[in-house]
């Protein structure tokens, strides 16, 4: 079931989104050569605590997971696409890092992700990250009343495929509201004009996940959470929580 939000509820979701944006800003500022993903998670916990917010990630256990998620952010490095458990292994110069964060504030959720390079950036990584951001912007641009879910999917997929990148198979965005994952699902590739019609009050987490090698396949780490590219190529993830309004898309997780 798709839950339509009122303007007041969307404003409340914006406050949760601000906390998410603060977490991602803090993580990006803290990330450096020698810093561990676990330290980034500790920094995120401090932001949540100061804001009086909770984490929708911590102890989350969907059907596919054998154990609850043990952190408040996902930190996926290099060939890890998404769902990386923050480790104690220090980041190295040139690592491509994707951080996915969420917050629950006053009963409403926000969800967003960014990717960046630690230290010196390889040109191919810079292009990959920029394309993920471009795909996200295209998806947001298609999130307007009168369009359909397929229009968002097509906008994202076109940017990714035209750049020669793969799209993580079987994964995409989702509705969001009182809980982190709600209906509808938002694929990262699809046909325009198909799927559910977009209505004012719908709130979606739009999140392209790109694979540099051009394939869509992935494998699971032994931790049961981390998804890695099968070809060892690097990956990038970008995400915003977006409200559909009569005046156009409203990004709720912008800083």
UniProtKB/TrEMBL annotation:
- The protein's superkingdom reads Bacteria
SUPFAM superfamilies, from UniProt? Answer: Creatinase/aminopeptidase
Leader peptide range in chain numbering = none
InterPro entries for the chain: Creatinase/aminopeptidase-like (IPR036005), Pept_M24 (IPR000994), Pept_M24_MAP (IPR001714), Pept_M24A_MAP1 (IPR002467)
Q: Which UniProt keywords apply?
A: Aminopeptidase, Hydrolase, Metal-binding, Protease
- Which positions are annotated as binding substrate? 83, 181
Q: Which GO MF terms are attached to this record? A: initiator methionyl aminopeptidase activity
State the reactions this protein catalyses.
Release of N-terminal amino acids, preferentially methionine, from peptides and arylamides
Can you tell me which residues bind a divalent metal cation 2?
111, 174, 207, 239
Cofactor(s) the record lists: Co(2+); Zn(2+); Mn(2+); Fe(2+)
Locate the residues binding a divalent metal cation 1.
Answer: 100, 111, 239
Q: What is its EC number?
A: 3.4.11.18
Question: What's noted on cofactor binding?
Answer: Binds 2 divalent metal cations per subunit. Has a high-affinity and a low affinity metal-binding site. The true nature of the physiological cofactor is under debate. The enzyme is active with cobalt, zinc, manganese or divalent iron ions. Most likely, methionine aminopeptidases function as mononuclear Fe(2+)-metalloproteases under physiological conditions, and the catalytically relevant metal-binding site has been assigned to the histidine-containing high-affinity site.
Function according to Swiss-Prot or TrEMBL: Removes the N-terminal methionine from nascent proteins. The N-terminal methionine is often cleaved when the second residue in the primary sequence is small and uncharged (Met-Ala-, Cys, Gly, Pro, Ser, Thr, or Val). Requires deformylation of the N(alpha)-formylated initiator methionine before it can be hydrolyzed.
Protein family membership: Belongs to the peptidase M24A family. Methionine aminopeptidase type 1 subfamily.
Oligomer and partners:
Monomer.
Protein name in UniProt: Methionine aminopeptidase
The scientific name of the source species is Streptomyces durocortorensis
